[in-house]
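Minutes, methods subgroup
Present: GH (chair), OT, SY

1. OT presented the first of two proteins processed in the latest run. Sequence and structure tokens recorded below as shown on screen.
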Amino acid sequence: MTAQVLLVDDEPGIRTTLARFLEELGCFVTQAGDPSEALSLLNAFEYDLVLTDIVMPNGSGLDVLRFVSSRENPCPVVMITGSPMVESASEALRLGAFDYISKPVHREQIVHVARRALEFRRVTQENERSRSDLEAIFTSVQDAIISVDRDLKVLNFNSSAAAICGLDASAAGTTFYDLPLKCDRKCRGALETAIHTKKPVETRYFKCGGAGCDRYVSVSVTPRRLTGRRVDGAVIVVRDETPLYRLEKRQQPRTSFSGLIGKSAPMQMLYSMIDRLAGVPSTVLIRGENGTGKELIAAALHENGGRQGLPFIKVNCAALTETLLESELFGHVRGAFTGALRDKAGLFEKADGGTLFLDEIGEISPQMQVKLLRVLQERELVKVGGAAPVKVDVRIIAATNRDLARDVEEGRFRQDLYYRLKVVELVVAPLRERPEDLPLLVEHFVGKLNAKLARAIGGVSEEALRLLARYPWPGNVRELEHALEHAFIMCPTRVILPEHLPALFHAAAGEGRSMKERIIEALAHHAGNKSRVARALNIDRKTLYRKMRELGIPDAPT
């Protein structure tokens, strides 16, 4: 585009000469004979450069300079004078003149100054356009944008940040820690992590706001101006995705149900079965590996089975000896055995009208199997040392990590009791078979552990989540919770990184070993000590024995 130049001088000969020099440079030159005419032209047209004499009969070039300087995005002004004085030169520079040259003006001199001035004008306009574009984006975008320094002091923010985050003019210059926000500042963790790691951080769909606020946002943080190895700050973008979150929640499968977490197909089937069992007093057998949440399923069956509000009694059959278990379940009369100083109601009586959850049912002795079978058949029991039967109305929910069908075939479990318990069987898939549930469980446990440990962890980084996803989870959901609690203790920032997880996860991911290889290696390392092997693998001994049998590893009890 041709540069537009305004040339102001009261001497026509000088104007003609200077105009020719500038036209040779490719400029379109407009001439004015005095400041008054120049001001009229400046009011009507836009110029890229103004060259003006200072001393003229009908005014001063300084008036032209003042006018140009007062306008938005002023163009460069070059002052020309035939009688240079320190005072006029100082005043011209004070008012913002680009340059100051004396007459007589030589061609090389005027061409050189004009080129510099026009290049300055071009760069200034480009910068202004970029600034204007950025400002338009910054103010018009609906996401909240907040720029902070490395100490989390707010440098700038847009109008959407005022709407979403509640910021006002006083926020500028205030640290993120001191902002009067009405939320729990989960996004602060993402800011700290991005600055600490020098890497972008993204989190999606977490609840934002104080009590009564039901807003869900996604947060993206990018480190700002990397200088060598130093980060000068970060820019955080907060997007209100509440409508999208609600739409996805309506369209997608359930992600939770009565305390259970998961959106996978096995979990959807489980939710559906619990729904079908609502209001039905049928006995249920829950089968699944240790740590899969069998007790939570039993509680969900109770709460959705028409007996909510009535007793829900839990007993771990493997934790008690046969004599103690019988007394706990059925109760005893005074004098039934040494120490029985008074009559005692058993758990069946205490659960009357409600639900009795028998965990680890596969561990009870043959004698206890007979007595339990009678209660299930007759709906009555006899206390230890007593004779009179006691009627009970109890829904039985049993759980086991054993293959009871195999135990029946091998004579370790009564077939008639097995079929009494297995009126309806719910099989819980292990965590390794439903990897899509892992992020939901992580989010759930982050919230739970924040409350338990009084922390404000915002979430788990993408790298840490990928590391968790590659792990086979022999201890299932319980192991995940313990691993995250370990990470909470080790995490000094607001986001859990891979280095905060137990070393076991790094070893498993790096070596890609199978469970069989890991067990064999652990047995060799601990000289066959099963307790130590189980601790090293973060599983209990019973799970270890079962895994050894399933994988054909010798020295496993049968």
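2. SY then presented the second protein from the same run.
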Amino acid sequence: MEKLVTTSWLLIFQVFFLSACGEYNWNNPYSVADAEKNILYNVFTERPKHLDPVQSYSSNEIQFTAQIYEPPLQYHYLKRPFMLIPATAKELPVVKYFDNEGSQLPDDALATDIAHSVYEISIKPGILFQPHPAFASNAQGDWLYHDLNEQELASVFKLSDFPQTGTRELLAEDYVYQIKRLAHPRLHSPIYGLMADYIVGLSDYAKVLKQADQNQSGGRTYFDLRDYRLEGVQIVDRYTYRIKITGKYPQFIYWLAMTFFAPIPWEADRFYSQKGLTQKNITLDWYPVGTGPYMLTENDPNLKMVLEKNPNFHDEFYPAEGMPGDAENSLLIDSGKKLPFIDKIIFTREKESIPRWNKFLQGYYDATGIGSDSFDQAVQLVGQGEATVTEAMAEQGIRLETTVAVSTYYMGFNMLDPVVGGSNANERESARKLRQAISIAVDYEEFISIFANGRGMPAQSPISPGIAGYRDGKEGINPVVYEWLNDQPQRKSIQAAKALLAEAGYPNGIDRRTGAPLILYFDVTARSSEDRSKLDWMRKQFQKLNIQLVVRSTDYNRFQDKIRKGNAQIFEWGWNADYPDAENFLFLLYGPQSKVRNSGENAANYDNTEYNQLFEQMKNMDDGPQRQLIIDRMVEVLRHDAPWLWGYHPKDYGLYHAWYQNIKPNRISNNNLKYLKIDAALRAQKRREWNEPVLWPIALLLVVLAISLFPAVAAFRRHESSTAVRSASS
């Protein structure tokens, strides 16, 4: 009993001793040893499915792949409007035009006279790939891990189990090899259909590779793409290659800044093709191989993903110039310094917004978006609607960065579905009016107000503001959904929507043919309580028309599979622009880009002959009045057919701690982590200040416990004394 009391006082002492030390926060989710290390702490919500650049095209994947792979071009980090600059290329390629006879044409030649365009790209010498076992060889130059046997594979469970790595110089052939992979029969590149229309011979090349794959013998899983010639790409020398495309396509240069055109070494393809590795999920989709500033060293997509500085990264330096105001905003302090600044980036998976928000406030995440439930706590409007952080946020040194996102969020209709798309002419007309009715009924002004705290604007078409081709004001409204009243757009009444619904054959939401209520199905990826609130709101929007909306929620990878197979009826999705041109939005509804038919990006599987013809005409034109007229007609066709509820264009709000520096957000350029900087010492100091444990309740409880034990101790002593006396007398 005395020992118990002594232990209680000892615990009290230890508690206050630890509190006084203050060197470690009890709620710290990270290793104590990492407290002041140069690490960026970030989050991701959905596990990436593809990290192979030939297949990856989702925003949850690009945040990783853009840091690992290097296409030849990139965007200037600070300049606006967005400006292409070299990445691994020596300089921006100059396109040359040729006629059918192969004669070079002047730069101002008519698009109708241009048979081919040629882009010649020269890369910088001396660039090395990251360390990787695919490059490991012995003294004789034999590959160590290209032909693994069962015994060797038995001890391999992850990439780091290979004891040796190697590297080699980046060559022009690595870029050519990746372009050939776009047509690989075992891969499903989302841009193959589009690129097959442009890169000369790519469609025929796909047929050649498919036949070669079928002719493989002995269960071989690899065939060397270097053995198969592709007409549209040519290696000029060790560091130079050419891409030949059909006709004139001014937007093609933007694709050269995307990871689809990043280099893949044949050694990596050979290494990962081994069945034993594929069975253990050691693949290019899981372990990328690049020349970029970072490499993926840990991949647990259900918990954590880690990027670390590539020790072989070539010389690249922070920009020396930017825009007016950048110097005043401390964005040019690091001009001329070698990149990257951060040693390691730890991405933690956070499915719910509340724990993500709380960890940000505690200093355990360096930046965060702002959910609707925390908006009022974080942001206040001052002056003429200008947004700034609240006083509480400012006291913590937290700052707000805003930008107009070159993005759109929309609700799509699967045009292959008999109800919302139609199977014949009569059904298609009925389905069109049904879609138009729903477009009026779903009040996106209300959605933005409730769920986005006003951070967005209702979309009138797929084209985002800030993109050439976008129309503003009266001439930019969607006349199917809006009227122009008092110098602003006004959503049409629900009575107008009900009239269209009756014309579609569903008066008051009842199928005129069967007498049954109209039931529609909505596929989403929703998990959080905020998501559930949005879905309840969406059901109410459909209920205005007496339509029953059944929500089918699933994880993102399963959702992608359903979209790819055409098993969704109505779905919710979004698009971040890959490059600043209207074509990058309008191609999302181009018929040959159908998700089901051609594995393209047309998730609605929309196919309108007039629209397709206009798209094919528009895509080859330079910006100008004539191109704008064609875009206007394309948008008019889309509004009439309503394959999407056009949804809204978001405004991005981000919160950043004082120690997080060199921030200039944008959605076009994705390889931005190399420019960012962390003051790890300041972060460690603030974490200690903000997370000091409140220990006095524990101490008080222990004191009360110790005091309450004194009567028991006294009684125990009396009992022991009386026992001792009786023993002595006996």
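Chair's summary of item 2: The mean pLDDT is 91.
Next meeting: continue with the remaining queue.
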